Amino acid sequence: MNIKEYDDHVTIKDIVKSIRIVPKTLVLIKNVDKQSFFIIIFLSLLMGGAPIVTLLGSQNLLNAIGSQNIRIIISALIFYISAVLLSEIISSFMEYYQNKFQTLINYKLNLQIMDKCTKLSLRHFEDAEVYDMLQRVQNETPYKPFEVFLSILGAISAIVTFFSSMMILIHWKPWVLIILIFIPLVFSFYFFKIGQREFNVSWLRAPEKRKSWYLSYLMTRDNTFKEVKIYNLAGYILNKFKEINKKFVGQDIHLFKRRTVFTFIFELVEQICINTVLVIIIISALAGEILIGHVVGLIQALNLISSNSKKILNIIHSLYKNNLYINQLFEFLGLDEEVLDKEDRFVSGIDKIESIKIRNLTFRYPTNPKVVLKNINLDINKGERIAIVGANGSGKSTLIKLLLKLYEHDEDSIFYNGVSINDLDTEQLRKNIAVLFQDFVKYELKLRENVGFGDITRIDRDGELKQAMERARVNFIEDLDTQLGLWFVDGVQLSGGQWQKVAIARALFRDASVYILDEPSSALDPISEKEVIDMFINMTKDKIGIFISHRLSTAKLADKVVVMNDGEIVGIGTHWELLATNELYRRMYELEALKNEEEYERLNESAGL
Ligand SMILES: Nc1ncnc2c1ncn2[C@@H]1O[C@H](COP(=O)(O)OP(=O)(O)OP(=O)(O)O)[C@@H](O)[C@H]1O
Q1: Which fold, 355-432+519-525+541-609?
Q2: How much distance in Å is there from the Cα of 377 to the middle of ligand 1?
Q3: Which of 273, 337, 540, 577 could form a disulfide with 545 if both were Cys (CB 3.0 to 4.6 A apart)?
Q4: Cα dihedral across residues 245, 248, 254, 260: positive or negative
Q5: Domain ABC transporter spans what residues (predicted)?
Q6: Could you tell me if the CB of 397 is within 6 A of ligand 1?
Q7: pLDDT tens-digit series, residues 537-593
């Protein structure tokens, strides 16, 4: 959505465009619960008419008292009491339905947002704008949609009251209409303009607002707090936070001033007009043209016009303020979803993966101009264990993500069992692959869930869960129902390496035909690393095993080592073949050996050997 600069001229076209959001919002809210929606609309209409019925009741009653006829007085009194009672009953019903509807809106819209999240692709979560949108939508959904709905309802009631009060005055003197309608109409246009401008300001502010949110996040979360303390960053971060927010405060005060001045002028003009009409009413009464009941009725109608025209203008303003949220909600719900299986392709299932073939795979991320993978060619067959090595940023993890079909890539360059990945049923394919990501998740849930998420259908099979844990050397907690992490009560915090072992157990729990571990040993001590890799090599004997490692002493345990450099495969072979033929691999190995040797000598020296 394109928004003009802060001080740009706001046109009627802009205003009309913004009003168009109202019917769309109503449809969205209606779909939450049709019955409550229509009942509330109906009650709002009744509530809009109720003040007028009460007004007519009191006018009748006063005139009846003037007539001194007891029968007329009693029937006028009954009418008046019934009108008051009815409006009380309507407002009680309204309260119940509003509360019910608010709960439903909060629950169902949040569900809709979560459901939408599950349907997006990974690229959406790597896009700052989408992330920004998601955060706003999530934070504001518990109260904003209902606030918007309330504003719309308020507008319905206020418009009904405004026009019916107007009818009473028109009935008396039609020309009064010109004064009383013309003024709010002219002013409402300027209120639109003010609202639109405030909307523009908050829209343009969104990226900086997010930065400000991130700065406060750095100061208030346990995982960032340690560094903030140790590097003494509090002052620096606070200053940055102040800088951004001071600007916002300045803008807000400026806008607030404008709105206050404007509202004051409106009220002044309106009061002059209303009081002119009031004087005319008094003159008419003195001339004997109208009865005392009518005088009271007309004055009440005037008051209703005054209060409701103000209410309508305030509602216009609040609808504008909420426009930003509503726009983002619609934009978020309208994001294109992950196309798992293309309609124009024949999609075939896959049972067990026996071979992976990569042919001329070239890839770049949509947000990054750099070609991250260049002409990759690789064959992996059942029974092979492959290690991928290479410098940081050489494309190892990207290759894994493409093997998992986490990014759309139209070219047919990855084949499972000879079939292009684009022709395979994505869910079935993913079921066949177990993976440990470099940035694996530490689920602040039970140990059972942390391991069982590898195959949710078998989460209750304690024996199998324990077997996976044993393989991954998770021998530090026995009870599967232990809560992990510190977020919730009774949680047990694990060390970095222990969390990694739990994540490895999760991958191993899956009954897959391809196992992929992206840097499984980054947080493991050397003994655990050796044990885990030995076990991995062993358990993938009749499967396909792929692991990424920065340690060549680990990589050499694989059947084949793939050396990557700057997005290209620069060597494939056994450890010994590569040592003999690949310059980069040899250099990497020598450096590692040298480092180990130095370390060994240092240890010997410090031990005095
Ligand atoms: N989501 C992304 N969007 C844009 N560019 C990305 C993304 N992820 C990675 N890159 C870029 O792709 C290149 C390869 O990254 P990748 O994570 O595949 O490297 P790697 O070999 O796994 O590195 P490391 O050993 O540090 O884990 C890098 O230049 C990185 O900046």
Answers
A1: Rossmann fold (3.40.50)
A2: 19
A3: 540
A4: negative
A5: 356-591
A6: yes
A7: 888 888 999 999 888 888 888 999 999 999 999 999 999 999 999 999 999 888 887
